[in-house]
Amino acid sequence: MKNIEVEVPADGADLVEEVLKEYSDDISKQEIEKDDNKYIEFNLTIDSPDIDALSEDLKGITDLDRGELTVRVLKQSAIIEKGKEAQGGSETLSVQEMYSKAISFATFTKASWMLIALASSIAAFGMILNNVIIVIGAMMIAPMLSPLIASSFGLVIGDRTLIQKSILYSAFSILFSILISFLITLPLPISANELMYMVSDPGLLPIALSLFVGAATSLTFMTEARETLAGVAVAIALVPPSAVAGMSLGMVDLDLFLNVMIVLVTNVISIILAGSLTFKFMGVAPSTYYRKKVSEEKLRTAVMVSVTSLLIISTPLAIVSYHNYQNVGVQNTVNNQITTHISGPIISKDIQIQRNTISIEIVAINASEEQNALKDSLDSSLDHDIALNVISVPANVTSYE
Protein backbone atom coordinates (compact mmCIF):
# COMPACT_ATOMS: atom_id res chain seq x y z
CA MET A 1 0.00 0.00 0.00
CA LYS A 2 1.15 3.55 -0.77
CA ASN A 3 -0.12 6.96 0.27
CA ILE A 4 -0.74 9.33 -2.66
CA GLU A 5 -1.04 13.12 -2.61
CA VAL A 6 -2.59 14.81 -5.64
CA GLU A 7 -2.67 18.59 -6.08
CA VAL A 8 -4.90 20.12 -8.74
CA PRO A 9 -6.48 23.57 -9.39
CA ALA A 10 -9.90 23.88 -7.77
CA ASP A 11 -11.72 24.12 -11.12
CA GLY A 12 -10.38 20.70 -12.19
CA ALA A 13 -10.88 18.93 -8.87
CA ASP A 14 -14.13 17.18 -9.84
CA LEU A 15 -12.54 15.50 -12.87
CA VAL A 16 -9.58 14.32 -10.80
CA GLU A 17 -11.81 13.06 -7.99
CA GLU A 18 -13.78 10.90 -10.44
CA VAL A 19 -10.54 9.20 -11.52
CA LEU A 20 -9.31 8.76 -7.95
CA LYS A 21 -12.58 7.08 -6.87
CA GLU A 22 -11.92 4.29 -9.39
CA TYR A 23 -8.82 3.31 -7.42
CA SER A 24 -9.65 3.98 -3.78
CA ASP A 25 -12.58 4.55 -1.40
CA ASP A 26 -10.28 6.06 1.21
CA ILE A 27 -9.99 9.62 -0.15
CA SER A 28 -9.71 12.86 1.79
CA LYS A 29 -9.35 16.36 0.41
CA GLN A 30 -8.62 19.87 1.59
CA GLU A 31 -8.37 23.30 0.05
CA ILE A 32 -4.88 24.84 -0.09
CA GLU A 33 -3.26 27.93 -1.63
CA LYS A 34 -0.45 27.58 -4.13
CA ASP A 35 1.06 30.53 -6.02
CA ASP A 36 -1.88 32.69 -4.83
CA ASN A 37 -4.35 30.27 -6.46
CA LYS A 38 -6.81 27.86 -4.91
CA TYR A 39 -5.88 24.21 -5.20
CA ILE A 40 -7.43 21.01 -3.91
CA GLU A 41 -5.12 18.46 -2.27
CA PHE A 42 -6.37 14.88 -2.35
CA ASN A 43 -4.94 12.21 -0.08
CA LEU A 44 -5.62 8.53 -0.73
CA THR A 45 -4.21 5.05 -0.18
CA ILE A 46 -3.90 2.59 -3.06
CA ASP A 47 -2.10 -0.63 -3.88
CA SER A 48 1.41 -0.15 -5.27
CA PRO A 49 0.67 -1.98 -8.57
CA ASP A 50 -2.13 0.56 -9.30
CA ILE A 51 0.11 3.63 -9.11
CA ASP A 52 1.24 3.43 -12.73
CA ALA A 53 -2.29 3.01 -14.07
CA LEU A 54 -3.56 5.89 -11.88
CA SER A 55 -0.76 8.14 -13.12
CA GLU A 56 -1.61 7.41 -16.75
CA ASP A 57 -5.34 8.08 -16.17
CA LEU A 58 -4.58 11.40 -14.48
CA LYS A 59 -2.26 12.40 -17.32
CA GLY A 60 -5.12 11.63 -19.71
CA ILE A 61 -7.35 14.42 -18.32
CA THR A 62 -7.22 16.84 -21.21
CA ASP A 63 -8.85 19.77 -19.39
CA LEU A 64 -5.77 20.23 -17.20
CA ASP A 65 -2.84 22.24 -18.56
CA ARG A 66 0.78 21.14 -18.33
CA GLY A 67 2.15 21.58 -14.80
CA GLU A 68 -1.23 21.98 -13.10
CA LEU A 69 -1.35 18.41 -11.78
CA THR A 70 1.10 17.17 -9.14
CA VAL A 71 1.23 13.58 -7.85
CA ARG A 72 3.38 12.63 -4.87
CA VAL A 73 3.95 9.03 -3.79
CA LEU A 74 4.60 8.82 -0.05
CA LYS A 75 5.98 5.90 1.87
CA GLN A 76 3.30 4.00 3.81
CA SER A 77 4.36 1.97 6.85
CA ALA A 78 1.04 0.31 7.73
CA ILE A 79 -2.74 0.76 7.80
CA ILE A 80 -4.57 -0.38 10.93
CA GLU A 81 -8.38 -0.23 10.96
CA LYS A 82 -10.72 -1.62 13.57
CA GLY A 83 -12.30 -4.88 12.45
CA LYS A 84 -9.95 -5.28 9.47
CA GLU A 85 -6.68 -7.04 8.92
CA ALA A 86 -3.68 -4.73 9.18
CA GLN A 87 -2.07 -3.87 5.82
CA GLY A 88 1.66 -3.28 5.65
CA GLY A 89 3.44 -0.86 3.41
CA SER A 90 4.87 -2.22 0.16
CA GLU A 91 8.63 -2.25 -0.41
CA THR A 92 8.20 -2.68 -4.18
CA LEU A 93 8.19 0.56 -6.14
CA SER A 94 5.94 1.40 -9.05
CA VAL A 95 7.47 2.13 -12.46
CA GLN A 96 6.76 5.85 -11.97
CA GLU A 97 8.60 5.80 -8.64
CA MET A 98 11.50 3.87 -10.17
CA TYR A 99 11.66 6.36 -13.04
CA SER A 100 11.93 9.31 -10.63
CA LYS A 101 14.57 7.39 -8.73
CA ALA A 102 16.53 6.59 -11.90
CA ILE A 103 16.58 10.26 -12.92
CA SER A 104 18.22 11.16 -9.61
CA PHE A 105 20.61 8.19 -9.96
CA ALA A 106 21.76 9.22 -13.44
CA THR A 107 23.79 12.22 -12.24
CA PHE A 108 26.26 13.01 -9.48
CA THR A 109 26.41 15.89 -7.02
CA LYS A 110 29.62 17.53 -5.78
CA ALA A 111 29.46 15.31 -2.73
CA SER A 112 29.25 12.23 -4.96
CA TRP A 113 32.36 13.26 -6.92
CA MET A 114 34.22 13.85 -3.66
CA LEU A 115 33.18 10.42 -2.38
CA ILE A 116 34.47 8.82 -5.60
CA ALA A 117 37.78 10.67 -5.16
CA LEU A 118 38.06 9.57 -1.53
CA ALA A 119 37.08 5.98 -2.34
CA SER A 120 39.66 5.84 -5.15
CA SER A 121 42.35 7.27 -2.87
CA ILE A 122 41.57 4.79 -0.10
CA ALA A 123 41.49 1.90 -2.59
CA ALA A 124 44.85 2.97 -4.05
CA PHE A 125 46.51 3.08 -0.62
CA GLY A 126 44.91 -0.28 0.19
CA MET A 127 46.47 -1.72 -2.95
CA ILE A 128 49.87 -0.20 -2.14
CA LEU A 129 49.76 -1.70 1.36
CA ASN A 130 48.45 -5.01 -0.04
CA ASN A 131 45.59 -4.73 2.49
CA VAL A 132 42.20 -6.15 1.47
CA ILE A 133 40.40 -4.61 4.47
CA ILE A 134 41.32 -1.07 3.38
CA VAL A 135 40.06 -1.80 -0.15
CA ILE A 136 36.76 -3.06 1.30
CA GLY A 137 36.49 0.22 3.20
CA ALA A 138 36.82 2.08 -0.11
CA MET A 139 33.95 0.04 -1.57
CA MET A 140 31.69 1.07 1.31
CA ILE A 141 31.76 4.76 0.36
CA ALA A 142 31.96 4.64 -3.46
CA PRO A 143 28.67 5.86 -5.02
CA MET A 144 29.32 4.21 -8.39
CA LEU A 145 26.09 2.20 -8.33
CA SER A 146 23.82 4.98 -9.50
CA PRO A 147 24.51 5.58 -13.22
CA LEU A 148 24.92 1.90 -14.06
CA ILE A 149 21.56 0.89 -12.64
CA ALA A 150 19.92 3.97 -14.17
CA SER A 151 21.23 2.97 -17.61
CA SER A 152 19.84 -0.56 -17.19
CA PHE A 153 16.45 0.88 -16.24
CA GLY A 154 16.58 3.38 -19.12
CA LEU A 155 17.16 0.58 -21.63
CA VAL A 156 14.06 -1.26 -20.39
CA ILE A 157 11.69 1.74 -20.40
CA GLY A 158 13.10 3.23 -23.62
CA ASP A 159 14.21 6.64 -22.31
CA ARG A 160 16.98 7.84 -24.65
CA THR A 161 17.93 10.82 -22.48
CA LEU A 162 18.22 8.69 -19.34
CA ILE A 163 20.34 6.10 -21.17
CA GLN A 164 22.74 8.67 -22.61
CA LYS A 165 23.10 10.68 -19.40
CA SER A 166 23.61 7.66 -17.14
CA ILE A 167 26.18 5.99 -19.42
CA LEU A 168 28.04 9.30 -19.76
CA TYR A 169 28.19 9.83 -16.00
CA SER A 170 29.19 6.21 -15.44
CA ALA A 171 32.09 6.56 -17.87
CA PHE A 172 33.14 9.85 -16.26
CA SER A 173 33.05 8.33 -12.76
CA ILE A 174 35.30 5.44 -13.82
CA LEU A 175 37.74 7.74 -15.64
CA PHE A 176 37.77 10.07 -12.62
CA SER A 177 38.56 7.13 -10.34
CA ILE A 178 41.40 6.06 -12.65
CA LEU A 179 42.78 9.63 -12.69
CA ILE A 180 42.77 9.94 -8.89
CA SER A 181 44.55 6.60 -8.49
CA PHE A 182 47.10 7.62 -11.14
CA LEU A 183 47.88 10.92 -9.40
CA ILE A 184 48.33 9.17 -6.04
CA THR A 185 50.70 6.57 -7.51
CA LEU A 186 52.77 8.95 -9.65
CA PRO A 187 55.15 10.28 -6.95
CA LEU A 188 55.50 6.96 -5.09
CA PRO A 189 58.22 4.35 -5.82
CA ILE A 190 55.95 1.30 -5.85
CA SER A 191 55.62 -1.90 -7.85
CA ALA A 192 52.79 -4.33 -8.52
CA ASN A 193 51.96 -6.71 -5.69
CA GLU A 194 49.88 -9.84 -5.18
CA LEU A 195 46.61 -7.96 -4.55
CA MET A 196 46.96 -5.90 -7.74
CA TYR A 197 47.59 -9.03 -9.80
CA MET A 198 44.59 -10.73 -8.21
CA VAL A 199 42.26 -7.81 -9.07
CA SER A 200 43.58 -7.57 -12.64
CA ASP A 201 43.34 -11.30 -13.39
CA PRO A 202 40.74 -11.69 -16.16
CA GLY A 203 38.68 -14.85 -16.09
CA LEU A 204 35.21 -16.32 -16.25
CA LEU A 205 34.53 -16.00 -12.52
CA PRO A 206 34.68 -12.15 -12.50
CA ILE A 207 32.20 -12.13 -15.40
CA ALA A 208 29.84 -14.44 -13.51
CA LEU A 209 30.24 -12.28 -10.38
CA SER A 210 29.33 -9.13 -12.32
CA LEU A 211 26.24 -10.78 -13.82
CA PHE A 212 25.03 -11.71 -10.32
CA VAL A 213 25.86 -8.21 -9.08
CA GLY A 214 23.85 -6.59 -11.87
CA ALA A 215 20.82 -8.79 -11.17
CA ALA A 216 20.99 -8.21 -7.41
CA THR A 217 21.37 -4.46 -7.86
CA SER A 218 18.31 -4.25 -10.10
CA LEU A 219 16.19 -6.14 -7.60
CA THR A 220 17.26 -3.88 -4.73
CA PHE A 221 16.61 -0.80 -6.90
CA MET A 222 12.99 -1.94 -7.28
CA THR A 223 12.53 -1.87 -3.50
CA GLU A 224 13.03 0.69 -0.76
CA ALA A 225 15.52 -1.37 1.22
CA ARG A 226 19.12 -2.63 1.18
CA GLU A 227 20.39 -0.21 -1.49
CA THR A 228 23.64 0.36 0.41
CA LEU A 229 24.48 -3.34 0.20
CA ALA A 230 23.78 -3.29 -3.54
CA GLY A 231 26.08 -0.29 -3.89
CA VAL A 232 28.86 -2.19 -2.15
CA ALA A 233 28.27 -5.13 -4.51
CA VAL A 234 28.70 -2.92 -7.56
CA ALA A 235 31.72 -1.26 -5.98
CA ILE A 236 33.35 -4.70 -5.77
CA ALA A 237 33.26 -4.87 -9.55
CA LEU A 238 34.33 -1.27 -10.19
CA VAL A 239 36.43 0.34 -7.45
CA PRO A 240 39.38 -2.11 -7.20
CA PRO A 241 39.85 -2.46 -11.00
CA SER A 242 39.61 1.33 -11.48
CA ALA A 243 42.21 1.89 -8.78
CA VAL A 244 44.59 -0.70 -10.26
CA ALA A 245 44.11 0.80 -13.75
CA GLY A 246 45.23 4.23 -12.56
CA MET A 247 48.09 2.78 -10.53
CA SER A 248 49.34 0.69 -13.44
CA LEU A 249 49.58 3.85 -15.55
CA GLY A 250 51.55 5.52 -12.75
CA MET A 251 53.91 2.53 -12.64
CA VAL A 252 54.05 2.43 -16.49
CA ASP A 253 53.02 -1.24 -16.38
CA LEU A 254 51.08 -1.60 -19.64
CA ASP A 255 50.50 -5.35 -19.30
CA LEU A 256 48.85 -4.83 -15.93
CA PHE A 257 46.82 -1.91 -17.34
CA LEU A 258 45.51 -3.93 -20.30
CA ASN A 259 44.54 -6.88 -18.09
CA VAL A 260 42.68 -4.75 -15.56
CA MET A 261 40.89 -2.79 -18.31
CA ILE A 262 39.59 -6.08 -19.72
CA VAL A 263 38.26 -6.89 -16.24
CA LEU A 264 36.73 -3.41 -15.86
CA VAL A 265 35.02 -3.34 -19.27
CA THR A 266 33.59 -6.86 -18.90
CA ASN A 267 32.31 -5.97 -15.42
CA VAL A 268 30.49 -2.87 -16.69
CA ILE A 269 28.95 -4.73 -19.65
CA SER A 270 27.89 -7.63 -17.43
CA ILE A 271 26.26 -5.38 -14.81
CA ILE A 272 24.24 -3.41 -17.39
CA LEU A 273 23.20 -6.56 -19.27
CA ALA A 274 22.14 -8.48 -16.16
CA GLY A 275 20.40 -5.42 -14.74
CA SER A 276 18.35 -4.82 -17.89
CA LEU A 277 17.31 -8.45 -18.23
CA THR A 278 16.33 -8.55 -14.55
CA PHE A 279 14.14 -5.45 -14.90
CA LYS A 280 12.52 -7.01 -17.97
CA PHE A 281 11.96 -10.33 -16.20
CA MET A 282 10.36 -8.54 -13.23
CA GLY A 283 7.78 -6.91 -15.48
CA VAL A 284 9.12 -3.35 -15.78
CA ALA A 285 7.74 -1.92 -19.01
CA PRO A 286 7.47 1.47 -20.81
CA SER A 287 4.30 3.52 -20.29
CA THR A 288 3.75 4.61 -23.91
CA TYR A 289 3.76 2.92 -27.31
CA TYR A 290 6.61 5.15 -28.54
CA ARG A 291 8.80 4.31 -25.58
CA LYS A 292 7.92 0.65 -25.97
CA LYS A 293 9.26 0.71 -29.54
CA VAL A 294 12.40 2.59 -28.43
CA SER A 295 12.84 0.17 -25.53
CA GLU A 296 12.57 -2.89 -27.77
CA GLU A 297 15.07 -1.40 -30.22
CA LYS A 298 17.57 -0.21 -27.60
CA LEU A 299 17.32 -3.32 -25.43
CA ARG A 300 17.69 -5.66 -28.40
CA THR A 301 20.76 -3.75 -29.57
CA ALA A 302 22.23 -3.59 -26.06
CA VAL A 303 21.73 -7.31 -25.47
CA MET A 304 23.27 -8.23 -28.84
CA VAL A 305 26.28 -5.93 -28.34
CA SER A 306 26.76 -7.03 -24.71
CA VAL A 307 26.48 -10.75 -25.44
CA THR A 308 28.77 -10.46 -28.48
CA SER A 309 31.35 -8.48 -26.49
CA LEU A 310 31.25 -10.96 -23.62
CA LEU A 311 31.61 -13.88 -26.01
CA ILE A 312 34.58 -12.25 -27.74
CA ILE A 313 36.26 -11.58 -24.39
CA SER A 314 35.21 -14.75 -22.56
CA THR A 315 36.11 -17.25 -25.31
CA PRO A 316 39.89 -16.82 -25.00
CA LEU A 317 39.46 -16.52 -21.24
CA ALA A 318 37.58 -19.82 -21.20
CA ILE A 319 40.36 -21.47 -23.20
CA VAL A 320 43.01 -20.06 -20.86
CA SER A 321 40.98 -21.11 -17.81
CA TYR A 322 40.59 -24.63 -19.21
CA HIS A 323 44.33 -24.93 -19.82
CA ASN A 324 45.03 -23.57 -16.35
CA TYR A 325 42.62 -26.12 -14.89
CA GLN A 326 44.41 -28.89 -16.80
CA ASN A 327 47.80 -27.60 -15.64
CA VAL A 328 46.64 -27.63 -12.02
CA GLY A 329 45.65 -31.29 -12.43
CA VAL A 330 48.98 -32.13 -14.03
CA GLN A 331 50.90 -30.28 -11.32
CA ASN A 332 49.01 -32.15 -8.59
CA THR A 333 49.83 -35.47 -10.28
CA VAL A 334 53.52 -34.57 -10.50
CA ASN A 335 53.64 -33.47 -6.86
CA ASN A 336 51.95 -36.68 -5.73
CA GLN A 337 54.39 -38.80 -7.71
CA ILE A 338 57.37 -36.90 -6.32
CA THR A 339 56.10 -37.37 -2.77
CA THR A 340 55.60 -41.10 -3.40
CA HIS A 341 58.99 -41.86 -4.98
CA ILE A 342 61.38 -39.41 -3.34
CA SER A 343 61.79 -40.68 0.20
CA GLY A 344 64.45 -38.28 1.40
CA PRO A 345 63.99 -34.61 2.32
CA ILE A 346 63.39 -32.40 -0.73
CA ILE A 347 65.47 -29.23 -0.68
CA SER A 348 63.85 -27.62 -3.74
CA LYS A 349 61.81 -28.48 -6.80
CA ASP A 350 60.93 -26.61 -9.98
CA ILE A 351 58.08 -27.77 -12.25
CA GLN A 352 57.57 -26.09 -15.64
CA ILE A 353 54.46 -27.23 -17.57
CA GLN A 354 54.17 -26.40 -21.24
CA ARG A 355 51.86 -27.71 -23.94
CA ASN A 356 53.46 -31.13 -24.51
CA THR A 357 56.42 -31.18 -22.14
CA ILE A 358 57.04 -31.03 -18.42
CA SER A 359 60.44 -29.99 -17.10
CA ILE A 360 61.14 -31.08 -13.54
CA GLU A 361 64.22 -30.32 -11.48
CA ILE A 362 64.48 -31.70 -7.95
CA VAL A 363 67.19 -31.23 -5.36
CA ALA A 364 66.87 -33.88 -2.62
CA ILE A 365 69.01 -35.73 -0.13
CA ASN A 366 70.10 -39.25 -1.10
CA ALA A 367 67.78 -39.47 -4.12
CA SER A 368 70.14 -40.87 -6.77
CA GLU A 369 68.51 -44.31 -6.86
CA GLU A 370 64.93 -43.02 -7.05
CA GLN A 371 65.11 -41.01 -10.29
CA ASN A 372 64.35 -43.93 -12.67
CA ALA A 373 61.33 -45.11 -10.70
CA LEU A 374 59.93 -41.57 -10.61
CA LYS A 375 60.49 -41.13 -14.37
CA ASP A 376 58.71 -44.42 -15.19
CA SER A 377 55.76 -43.50 -12.98
CA LEU A 378 55.40 -40.04 -14.54
CA ASP A 379 55.59 -41.48 -18.08
CA SER A 380 52.80 -43.94 -17.31
CA SER A 381 50.60 -41.33 -15.58
CA LEU A 382 50.90 -38.41 -18.02
CA ASP A 383 50.76 -37.89 -21.78
CA HIS A 384 53.51 -35.26 -21.73
CA ASP A 385 57.18 -35.66 -22.58
CA ILE A 386 58.98 -35.68 -19.23
CA ALA A 387 62.37 -33.98 -18.78
CA LEU A 388 63.43 -35.03 -15.27
CA ASN A 389 66.59 -33.95 -13.50
CA VAL A 390 67.10 -35.16 -9.93
CA ILE A 391 70.12 -33.74 -8.10
CA SER A 392 71.04 -35.93 -5.17
CA VAL A 393 72.82 -34.30 -2.26
CA PRO A 394 74.62 -36.60 0.17
CA ALA A 395 73.68 -36.31 3.80
CA ASN A 396 76.41 -34.91 5.99
CA VAL A 397 76.75 -36.75 9.28
CA THR A 398 78.87 -35.06 11.89
CA SER A 399 79.71 -36.79 15.12
CA TYR A 400 80.99 -35.11 18.27
CA GLU A 401 83.09 -37.00 20.80
Brief descriptors of the model:
single chain; 401 residues; alpha+beta; Alpha-Beta Plaits; Glycerol uptake facilitator protein; 3 domains; four-stranded antiparallel β-sheet; three-stranded mixed β-sheet; 13 helices; 9 strands; disordered C terminus
CATH class of the largest domain: Mainly Alpha
Net shape: elongated
The percent of residues in helical segments reads: 55-70%
Oligomer: single chain
Structural class of the helices, strands and pairings? Answer: alpha+beta
Overall pLDDT score: 77
CATH topology of the largest domain: Glycerol uptake facilitator protein
CATH second-level architecture of the largest domain: Up-down Bundle
E-strand count: 9
Number of domains: 3
**Major sheet details:** 4 strands, antiparallel
User: How large a portion of the residues is in β-strands, by DSSP E?
Assistant: 15-25%
Q: Order of strands in the sheet with the most strands?
A: 2-3-1-4
Radius of gyration: 31 Å
H/E series, N to C? EHEEHEEEHHHHHHHHHHEEHE
Please, how many helices? 13
Termini separation (Å)?
A: 93 Å
Low-pLDDT stretches are 397-401
